[in-house]
Amino acid sequence: MTGAMYAAIGGLKSHMSKLNVIGNNIANVNTYGYKTQRMTFQESMYNTSKAGSNGGETKGGNNPSQIGYGSSVGSIDLNMAPSTYAPTGYGLDCMLMNEGFFLTGTKDGTVNTSADLSSLNLSRLGDFRVDNDGYICDRRGNVLYGFATVQNPYYNPNAAEGAMNPDGSGYLKDPTIISTELVPLRLPLSAAVPTVENGGYPAGTTADQIAAGTAKPNWQTGAPVYSVLGEPDTNNNMAASNIAGDAAAKGPKDGAWTPDADGVFDTTRIAANGENKCVQLESMSIDPTGAIIGINKNGGETVVVGYVAVASVDSPDGVTHTDGPYYKAMGGAGDVRVGAMGGVLKNRYLSNRYVADPTKDTIAVSEAIQDDSGELKNSGLEASSTDVATEFSEMITTQRGYQANTRIITVTDSMLEELVNMKR
Is the pLDDT of residue 185 over 50? Predict the structure, then answer.
């Protein structure tokens, strides 16, 4: 066989690979969040039949003589630029208007440092819903990660206007703040019916007082019960406590719930009879800053579940496609950083770390939450980035390239046939 036939076979294989890429793009023309791919060719190895030489004092030089052996796949690239907004009407559907990613994972995932971000899925598809346990999940069952609303451990309703918490996490007069621990987002728990036994009424309150409405309860039935922050550890980290599992978590310092005799807040008694039942929200939506908001069916107050975390990588086109709408930040993507939109967590650090002097603390760079300048657009999803006109044009040129390579094989075969027939 001649080199021309081998070159043509290489051309056939590479053109078929490109047709596979085109076919995948067209097949996903209506797939929400799909990012189109592009294949490029590269030349295969060369055989040098005569080396080049430089010119001398009396003679000129010669160029090298080389014969190529066809083409191969050069690269298959992802185009991660934002695509078109497609309205759906679902309140929890949303689209990132920049090149960031949603973070999804399991309900028991742990993210303490920026290095832990690589364990989570990156996704451009924001088709979220609330599951039966109150978690914000995508349609494939993975939980959305973000920054949850928690009780303000420094809450003081009598504080002066504008007075901030010592760690800059919010204002003293705010009963809730945003935790910077990256967690699976879940609706707050629903407060149980207040009784004297569970601390819902002051000790000594009688049944007659409760029936007559003269006794003031410490909480309202069905009110949202948020997580509370634990004490700072050696890394100056105030991680959010699990309400269902940590009854000894430190609660607000003034006025939110009634403390036990030992001065701590037994948050398990506030949840509905220890059943871990979440509040029932209606009219849920995600605003442009990523806040997940709903109206409590039992009380009518507005509840902010938390804020959607937005991940970014050094090279968005370098992420590795794993399965469905998911990507991983592997080789080629660079480091993963996490941020929040709208400046809601500006100058804050992961896991509620408090940095007294960012110029000296080593975590200031790696654990800082990015102030993302983009925004979310709700009630819709990102349409596929496939351009059918472009793909059809590429399909035509690919077909002609494949056809031309088959002609090389046909001509080479005819020449070999003539060579064999010389013996006759």
Answer: yes
